[in-house]
């Protein structure tokens, strides 16, 4: 099956399952927004991501995470893509993002190709949102028809990134609070956390769980003993903490329900992951069990929550702008050669818990 057939099949499946659901809670967004102005958009996004994924299996997880870290700050407006300038304190330098975000260069590759065929038509915010959905498909996960029509922000907010993005040691109450602040409920929290079925995390962010949990001098008791020993081999106590560990020890590059099965077996990598299942009396436990027992139910809820998250704080109409280059607002972009400017790929891994 060729690339375009693959994505078409995935999207058709979504229509069958979700045909009765609204595409967006924001009436100004529409799946057909670029039908006339840039009909090639989705094929360009898919082809570039498919090519990159063949040499970088971590790419899908990195793109999905980049979308999360954009939407949780000041809405899905591509503010996370803005580089530091004399007037912009980049969100990329916020604590949850510094030395952590990956594959911003891939979004720039897509933007460059889109500008060649549809100049000044497609926002970076829409490209990033589309790329997250395609990344799910490329890793074996669900596809969905993305509501489009977002515009790009003129600013970034580093302090808000530090405040809004939950960390790897967040308690369940802290996670719920962070998600509720974005209009996302407990089911959304558990569904979106399922993106941790993909990707890697640096040892730095789990060392306390392995050796000195809550300053007890002992490992986190919610960790399975066999899994604990495996992680301790990968993350030695006195090591630099830069080794990377798979979120899912069984199918690390496949989008599936194993994340929830891992939580059931006390094999959640981050404390914030395991909190969903190991917090006594938590209402998230039944949701984890439901998703862990039925992958289709997980996929359906993941789609709903991704669409919901993708509508947070969007700029539409005449708000914001359509950036010519994703890393700079247009005033700065006009001084640059679009074809020659790319953002370097940052080779770190997870800092925040989403």
UniProtKB/TrEMBL annotation:
Ca(2+) 1 binds at residues 70, 73, 75, 77, 79, 91. Heme b binds at residue 196. Its EC number is 1.11.1.7. Substrate binds at residue 166. PROSITE patterns: PEROXIDASE_1, PEROXIDASE_4. One of its GO terms (biological process) is hydrogen peroxide catabolic process. It comes from the Eukaryota. Disulfide bonds join 38-118, 71-76, 124-326, 203-235. One of its GO terms (molecular function) is metal ion binding. Binds 1 heme b (iron(II)-protoporphyrin IX) group per subunit. Binds 2 calcium ions per subunit. The record marks 65 as: Transition state stabilizer. Residues 1-27 form the signal peptide. Pfam families: peroxidase (PF00141). GO terms for cellular component: extracellular region; plant-type cell wall. InterPro entries: Haem_peroxidase, Haem_peroxidase_sf, Peroxidase_pln, Peroxidases_heam-ligand_BS, Secretory_peroxidase. Its cofactor is heme b; Ca(2+). Gene3D superfamilies: 1.10.520.10, Peroxidase, domain 2. It is an enzyme of class 1 (oxidoreductase). The keyword 4Fe-4S does not apply. It is found in: Secreted. This is Peroxidase. It comes from Medicago truncatula (Barrel medic).
């Amino acid at each position: 099956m060729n690339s375009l057939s693959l994505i078409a099949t995935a999207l058709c499946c979504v229509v069958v399952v979700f045909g009765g659901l609204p595409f967006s809670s924001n009436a100004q967004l529409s799946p057909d927004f670029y039908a006339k102005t840039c009909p090639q958009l989705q094929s360009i996004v898919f082809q570039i991501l498919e090519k990159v994924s063949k040499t970088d299996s971590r790419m899908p997880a990195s793109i999905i995470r980049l979308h999360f870290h954009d939407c949780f700050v000041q809405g899905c407006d591509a503010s996370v893509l803005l580089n530091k300038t004399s007037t912009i304190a980049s969100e990329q330098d916020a604590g949850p993002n510094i030395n952590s975000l990956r594959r911003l260069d891939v979004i720039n590759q897509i933007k460059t190709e889109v500008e060649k065929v549809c100049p000044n038509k497609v926002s970076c915010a829409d490209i990033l949102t589309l790329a997250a959905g395609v990344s799910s498909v490329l890793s074996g996960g669900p596809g969905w028809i993305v509501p489009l029509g977002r515009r790009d922000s003129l600013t970034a907010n580093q302090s808000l990134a530090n405040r809004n993005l939950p960390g790897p040691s967040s308690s369940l109450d802290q996670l719920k609070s962070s998600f509720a602040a974005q209009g996302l409920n407990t089911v959304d929290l558990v569904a979106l956390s399922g993106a941790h079925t993909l990707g890697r995390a640096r040892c730095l962010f789990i060392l306390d769980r392995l050796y000195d949990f809550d300053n007890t001098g002992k490992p986190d008791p919610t960790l399975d003993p066999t899994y604990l020993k495996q992680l301790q081999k990968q993350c030695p106590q006195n090591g630099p903490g830069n080794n990377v560990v798979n979120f899912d020890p069984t199918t690390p590059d496949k989008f599936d329900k194993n994340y929830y099965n891992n939580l059931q077996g006390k094999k959640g990598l981050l404390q914030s992951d395991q909190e969903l299942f190991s917090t006594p009396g938590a209402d998230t436990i039944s949701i984890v069990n439901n998703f862990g027992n039925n992958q289709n139910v997980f996929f359906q809820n993941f789609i709903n929550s991704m669409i919901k998250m993708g509508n947070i704080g969007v700029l539409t109409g005449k708000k914001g702008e359509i950036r010519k280059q994703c890393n700079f607002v247009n005033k700065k972009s006009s001084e640059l050669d679009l074809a020659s400017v790319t953002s370097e790929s940052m080779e770190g891994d997870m800092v925040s818990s989403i």
